[in-house]
Amino acid sequence: MSPQVAASARRVPRSRIRELADIAMSMDGVLRLYFGESNLPTPDYIKRAATEALAAGYTYYTENAGLPSLRRALAAHYRTLHQVELDPSGEIVITASGVQALSVAIRALLDPGDEALVLTPAWPNGSAIVTMSNAVAVEIPHPLAGERYVIDFAALEAAVTPRTRMLLYTSPSNPLGWVATEEEQQRLLDFCRERGLWLMADEVYERLYYEGAKAGDPAPSILRKATREDAVVVVQSFSKAYCMTGWRVGWLVARRDLAAKVTELNEFIVSHAASFTQKAAETALAAGEEELSRMVERLKANRDFCRASLDAMPGVTVPEPGGAFYLFPRIEGLADSFEFCRRLLVETKVGLAPGVAFGAGGEGSVRLCYAAERGILEEAMARLAGFLTKENRVR
Ligand SMILES: Cc1ncc(COP(=O)(O)O)c(C=O)c1O
């Protein structure tokens, strides 16, 4: 008998966003709103910093936790943005992307058979990584209360078992755009403290936040509420705030014992993020604020435009999103979001991500990423409106 891939690998479902994207990529002229990526290129000052870093010799191995200078820059960043003091040599670890931070932290926290509570709809990678670790992802959907998504604490309570080890949430959320209030953060922290669970916050969209006093203000981090002794991990990335998706640089902030273990494990996974990209990330932190606030203003205008367009479409409800760059409209009567997105794509060349891709609570909705040019968004909204009107007539 021929050997097989591991059962834990086979249990991980294929990304349904990718499945849709694969169809879209075989077509010409598609308005691509299915991926979580800005159409803006990485700013030139960051590209220049990378070539300068290469010329200056950042071509060798670095520490497993990343360049000390980048960790110091991040600590300074947390002091300015959140008034939080972090020890750059013990509480911050640079990773080769947000997803690698998520992966190494989950791997360090879960044993086979353990359970992780995951608030969904969410980017599928969290649950997939839990499954790859031979553990079980227990998805708890965010219910919609009027205009806003909330957290179902009763469902969380009911889902805790002796095997539960951690709770993962994402704020600002992909795909919901939901941002945890300070009160919700406090309740999540108390919930985990009382039950002896790790609290993992995916904050990669922290800088794409529309409810601050000014554009560029961050969404509040859980690190403002937690002490450094709390069992808390924050997953972060340079991808979204600085248009650096292809660079693969992220970081995590964690309690000392976990940060130390993750640093050691990194050796066996990627060793460290690429040296010259780390150096360029330092420049992004130092010089990126102006460009970032311009981007947030532009994204906010896109959000408002798409939201108003969707609101005017028959049978569509779209809750107010406070952050990230997604809208997650619910479509009345929609039972198969993948088939809906496939037909929308084939018939109108508008590419959206099916809600079913985002786990429990996602079916019945679709996700669109509004980090695209206005002209593309206008055309996509017009085609979607036409498609829905036709669908309603057929129904
Ligand atoms: C919620 C969330 N977390 C983490 C990431 C990972 O980003 P990256 O691996 O590019 O740093 C993404 C990317 O889409 C995301 O949506």
Report what the structure shows.
By secondary structure, the protein is of the alpha/beta class. It has helices at 7-11, 16-25, 44-55, 68-82, 98-109, 125-132, 153-159, 182-195, 256-269, 275-287, 289-311, 337-348, 374-394; strands at residues 31-32, 92-95, 115-120, 136-141, 144-145, 148-149, 164-170, 198-202, 232-237, 250-254, 316-317, 326-327, 330-331, 350-351, 353-354, 366-369. Helix 6 links the parallel strand 3 (115-120) and strand 4 (136-141). The termini are far apart. The mean pLDDT is 96. The structure holds pyridoxal-5'-phosphate. Pyridoxal-5'-phosphate (PLP) is lined by residues 36, 97-99, 123, 170, 174, 202, 204, 237, 239, 245, 250.
Keywords:
395 residues, alpha/beta, seven-stranded mixed β-sheet, 16 strands, binds pyridoxal-5'-phosphate
